[in-house]
Design goal:
Layout: H1 15-21, H2 23-30, H3 38-43, H4 56-68, H5 72-88, H6 91-107, H7 111-133, H8 146-153
């Protein structure tokens, strides 16, 4: 599962999400804080592939062995091309702007922020999360989706 539910209490996403997935997709998920599953992460380009947990290390080692077959200068130079290309396209500038806006987001307080923290002071983390996430339930996918609730109710 992937999510940024912290945006629901005045926080920020990352420009890297936008760089990886495009602005429309990033806004869909980052502006709601909704969860999305591995298949959605693959579909939107956030991850390269989805593998069963038990196969993860074997698949990672197989990919590493495959990369190791390529001459080292080629690996080094192609990584440099990719990273410097991203930097030339403005990723570094975007991350600098993101850090300033992140500081602003994390220092912004309003009545809702005060209510959330009062809920936490009086009812603990559970009350805080219920107030923050309750209006978003059920989510379209993820651990609190209608489908997940139905699966749990059926005992699967």
């Amino acid at each position: 599962m992937f999510a940024q539910p912290e945006v629901r209490h005045i926080s920020n996403s990352s420009y890297l999400f936008t760089a990886l997935c495009g602005w429309k997709v990033a806004n869909r998920w980052a502006l709601t804080g909704d969860h999305f599953d591995a298949e959605e992460a693959y579909r939107i380009g956030m991850v390269n592939e989805v593998v069963p947990h038990d196969d993860l290390m074997a698949r990672a080692r197989a990919l590493a062995a495959r990369i190791a077959l390529v001459p080292e200068p080629s690996i080094r130079l192609n990584k440099a091309i990719a990273m410097q290309g991203l930097q030339a396209s403005g990723v570094t500038s975007a991350l600098i702007v993101e850090s300033a806006l992140s500081a602003l987001a994390h220092s912004s307080h309003d009545d809702y922020w005060e209510q959330l923290h009062e809920a936490q002071r009086t009812g603990g983390v559970k009350a805080y999360l219920e107030m923050r996430d309750g209006p978003f339930q059920p989510e379209p996918m993820g651990p609190r989706s209608a489908e997940a609730r139905a699966t749990r109710a059926a005992g699967k």
